[in-house]
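Wed. Picked up where I left off yesterday with Winged helix-turn-helix transcriptional regulator. The coffee machine is broken again, so keeping this brief.
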Amino acid sequence: MADDPGPVFAALADPTRREVVRLLARTPGLTASALAGELPVSRQAIAKHLVLLRDAGLAEAEHAGRETRYRLTPEPLTGAMAWMAEAGGRWDTRLDRLRRRL
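Structure written out below (tokens, as returned):
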């Protein structure tokens, strides 16, 4: 995962998952039911979104008795941000070359 930001971008492509990430960043330890209470989707839909976030390395489940609580694991975001900075830097270089030619 560290070298490939694809799973992070795929996970964050969905607005509901982005909102789940925002909520987990603000309040670690939320349950799927609590997340569903904050969003206009069912608990089952939240569970599916959480699976995708976990697969991308962006969320981690912690079992506490009968509840499963989720927390954001932001480390994969670093790799995705580094990829964006590198890609942006390449475009800046290309645009600078084009400006000099024009």
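Quick read: The domain at 6-101 is CATH 1.10.10.10 (Arc Repressor Mutant, subunit A).
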